[in-house]
Write a structure and sequence with these properties.
The structure is a homodimer of 231-residue chains.
Chain A lengths: L4 H4 L22 H13 L9 H8 L13 H24 L5 H18 L1 H7 L3 H4 L4 H23 L8 H20 L10 H17 L14
Helix pairs in contact in A: 2-3, 2-4, 4-5, 4-6, 4-8, 5-6, 5-9, 5-10, 8-9, 9-10
The structure holds a DNA duplex (30 and 30 nucleotides).
DNA sequence: ATAAGTATCTTACCGTTGGTTAGATACTTA
DNA sequence: TAAGTATCTAACCAACGGTAAGATACTTAT
């Protein structure tokens, strides 16, 4: 019944001659992206778990049934929001990495950017990892959006290995360990028992600093702790 | 209106003479714990985000309004489920630690137990870290239930430090780093991009093994990797 | 024992939600 | 300009969280 409608209307904003870009005529123009944007805005006031499709449609100024011409499902709308947020996160981490400093400093800035994104956009961050976006039958789009960030991390690890700064382990596995550490720290800070420690900017930086240092240097006594990185 | 009712009826199962322990009379006996138990069972078939108070009451054989005499809120019921699950997790990790082997082996078994609990009870694990259980006004009970596990981890770290196996850093911070790593790995495995890698028992063990090793030994080239732990 | 008081449960109701269907409106294209 | 199609609204449904009023049973004082 409604199979290929989403694709056919995806990116077609300024094709025909409309009076205003935000045309308020019967047909909206690009309701799909407008709904995603509206969802991000509604998300700022509503919990991620209680995000209502009807509230999003209300915010966009359309009836809730209109949304079903652009998204198969409420979950599909949420998935689109998640992909949008993933792209934003990927952009933020890349931007942090491409700033000045040594290779290791830029890497650490990238690590911090991941957590800072979670702290600055907690609702979006929660959406990105909602269980129903994975367990559902086919949701490969969200998966690929998430994997892009992972692949970038792998490339950073490889660069660090080529510069002889990181052990020559499987970069894929190192990236996973790194991601797990960052992701765990972020979720514990926004939804877990660390959310009290993360209230002040000082507390956040300390948490990020010590955790990444522990991963970088190890916590076993047999591993030495050089001071060249305490910076 | 309903302030001290929950406390007054908490633990009073076999006080008066009832014919059967699972008395199906008008008054239930201990509906509160029955609802928590029912919620855990319903949770096995329903997603954690879509857990319905009415379905839980239905499963327990009572009307949904009856639940409101034992829980202020749907969130309060979920909080009780989370506390129940936290206690189960704490018990599992302690049990893993108290098994045979060296101190480090027992510690690593405890780390693995955390992730295995998440993999074996993903729905309960998700409930434990639902955002609404933290951001809500006063939900200190869930917090303390979660903190108990953390404090136990701190004590394990301290034991490792006394045995000269772990650097003499602040044990609190080390425990946080450890928890972040384990928690991140667990969530990425059940709700994140690693859930494909975690389908086989082999894949899970490899993920746990390499990640904990990375944290224990560090990934920087300046840190050495002793083989006494590769086991 | 009995009556009053209280805790717990059911039934009935409310507004909101996710989702579907039928019909209205506008864009597209021949 | 007419037919066809995409997109929207209005109306409807079942299920949900939550509340209020009344039914039932346990408790306790007398």
């Amino acid at each position: 019944m409604s199979s290929s409608k989403q694709e056919s209307s995806s990116k077609r904003v300024s094709s025909s001659g409309q009076k205003t870009p935000t045309a308020k005529s019967y047909h909206h123009g690009d309701l799909r992206t407008a709904l995603v944007k509206a969802a991000r805005e509604v998300l700022l006031e509503t919990g991620a778990g209680k995000l209502s499709l009807r509230a999003v449609a209300r915010h966009a100024g359309v009836s809730h049934a209109a949304a079903y011409y652009h998204f198969e499902d409420k979950t599909s709308l949420i998935a689109a929001v998640a992909i949008d947020a993933f792209e934003e996160l990927n952009h933020a981490t890349k931007a942090a990495y491409e700033q000045g400093g040594s290779l290791l400093e830029r890497s650490k800035a990238m690590f911090a950017a991941y957590i800072n994104f979670a702290l600055e956009h907690p609702q979006a961050f929660r959406i990105m990892f909602l269980p129903e976006l994975r367990s559902d039958a086919v949701r490969t789009d969200v998966e690929t959006a998430g994997r892009q960030g992972h692949e970038f991390t792998v490339s950073v690890i490889q660069q660090l290995q080529q510069a002889d700064q990181v052990v020559k382990d499987d970069p894929e596995r190192i990236a996973i360990s790194l991601w797990a550490m960052l992701h765990g720290l972020a979720t514990l800070m926004i939804d877990g028992p660390l959310y009290r420690n993360a209230k002040t900017q000082q507390g956040r930086e300390t948490l990020i600093q010590t955790a990444t240092d522990h991963l970088l240097h190890g916590i076993l006594h047999t591993a030495n702790m050089p001071e060249e990185l305490s910076e």
